[in-house]
Specification:
64% of the residues lie in helices and 6% in strands. It folds into two domains: 309 residues, no CATH class; 117 residues. The two termini are 36 Å apart.
């Protein structure tokens, strides 16, 4: 928010300022991935990693939306770069300050990412003690990280009303982990999280996975080196310390999101930069001259550009917030345009209750912005469940309503259901039969018959539209 305010004079629009922050973060990520790839496996790997950062759908998408994932991804990659340099014994003090500084600022964007990277950071600091003047470097790094963490944590605690209120706010989110974790929801939750992980890993490199696979194959057949003096063999740079560092960077977040809660591909940016750099280190084995490097980089940029514009052909055309492409963005805009045109057929403002999704792409604020005439009619529906924390119900800007409150209004009730995960959510919430009413080609709203007291004649006919 402070960055957006600082850039507000350039854009004169708050949303455009957020977009500019993400765009600058995307550019910083490209440079950081070049340096990270070069540290791992030489110049060729650096250029490959930069190409991934510039064109892979995951990085491209979050460099173009006004969310905090873009800056967090760039800071995560900077933290990893400093940790890798520490593990390789290069410039201990600058590397330590880079790792500690980036990690400290990262917490101000996504505190969870700071927790996930803490084991890798501590491992890298432990290695610094073995180097000349390593104690001094580690001490300055830890102090920098701590001071920057206090710099964002103290204002947050103050704005929350004190430590007790701040911790209560954190505890109020426990129901998210409980309701979506594999321990509560079972194998279906694991299947959804695994699908999201797969899409994230595909999107972090894109068509570059082909180059990485060829590089791994060549190394497995016994080449072992890049075949050019001055460029290190993969075995030399992937020392035991760096390999363990990579596991500590990827493992905590990957396992938490696999078993606990994974609602947005942006979560994966905490480790996706390192994944792209490791893939680049594998693919760099194939590049022995500048012309081959340029050709491969051009092919990656073109291939990933097509992936972003048209989506992944192997994903069966299924759309949702996990499909990071221009096709997804266009479908999102088309759905809400059709919703705005269809709502007057249901009734005027004040006669319709719109239930928004819990996802960020179809959430309450998105619905209110897309259909401003009905902004006051949009709400999030919650069931009267014991695990729903009481403090959450006091957040008036969420506009939370129980099924009983909605039923008592006597309005026409429709639900925004653009993505494939929304209908199961509402069915679980209300435990009632669902009907779908088409609003345009391939799009529908969901009508809850038991909640809707009255509706326009002929509109509530059973729809033939199936949700993807």
């Amino acid at each position: 928010m402070l960055l957006a305010r600082a850039l507000g004079g350039l854009t004169e629009d708050p949303h455009a300022a957020l977009l500019l922050v993400s765009a600058l973060s995307g550019g910083a990520l490209v440079v950081t991935l070049f340096l990270l790839g070069r540290e791992l496996a030489g110049r060729e790997a650096g250029w490959l990693a930069a190409a991934f950062g510039a064109s892979a759908p995951l990085f491209w998408f979050y460099g173009s939306v006004g969310l905090n994932y873009g800056p967090a991804g760039a800071l995560s990659a900077l933290t990893v770069l400093g940790c890798v340099r520490l593990c390789l014994g290069r410039a201990p003090l600058p590397a330590a300050l880079l790792a500690g500084g980036a990690l400290g600022v990262l917490g101000g964007f996504r505190p969870t990412d700071q927790l996930f990277l803490a084991p890798a950071y501590l491992w890298a600091l432990a290695g610094a003690f073995r180097q000349p003047r390593g104690n001094r470097a580690a001490g300055w790094s830890a102090a920098t990280c701590a001071l920057l963490t206090v710099g964002w944590l103290a204002p947050n605690i103050g704005s929350a009303g004190g430590i007790a209120a701040y911790l209560a706010g954190i505890r109020s989110l426990e129901h998210v982990f409980g309701s979506s974790s594999v321990f509560r929801a079972g194998l279906p939750a694991l299947s959804v999280a695994a699908y999201t992980h797969r899409r994230c890993l595909e999107s972090a490199v894109g068509v570059g996975w082909i180059v990485a696979a060829l590089g791994v194959g060549r190394w497995a057949l016994g080449s072992g080196a890049f075949g050019r003096s001055g460029v290190r063999a993969f075995g030399d740079t992937s020392s035991a310390r760096v390999r363990l560092l990579a596991a500590l960077v990827i493992g905590p977040a990957f396992l938490f999101y696999l078993l606990g809660h994974f609602n947005s591909p942006g979560y994966a940016l905490v480790y996706s930069g390192l994944v792209a750099a490791l893939a680049a280190a594998s693919g760099g084995r194939l590049l022995t001259d500048g012309r081959r490097l340029a050709a491969v980089v051009a092919a990656i940029l073109a291939g990933n550009g097509l992936l972003f514009l048209y989506g992944a052909p192997w994903d069966g055309g299924r759309l949702g917030q996990r499909a990071l492409s221009a096709v997804e963005i266009a479908d999102h805009a088309r759905y809400f345009r059709e919703l705005r045109e269809a709502l007057p057929r249901l009734g005027p403002p004040g006669k319709v209750r719109i239930l928004a999704s819990w996802t960020s792409t179809e959430g309450l604020r998105v619905v209110q912005a897309a259909v401003p005439e009905y902004a006051g009619d949009a709400a999030l529906a919650v069931a009267a469940r014991p695990e729903l924390p009481e403090p959450l119900g006091r957040l008036g800007f969420y506009r939370l309503m129980t099924p009983e409150e909605i039923r008592a209004e006597g309005r026409v009730v429709v639900c925004v259901v653009r993505t494939w995960e929304d209908p199961p959510h509402h069915r679980r919430l209300f435990g009632e039969a669902l009907e779908f009413a088409p609003i345009g080609p391939g799009h529908a709203v969901m009508v809850l018959p038991a909640l809707t007291v009255e509706s326009p004649p002929g509109y509530r006919e059973k729809a033939t539209v199936k949700q993807q």
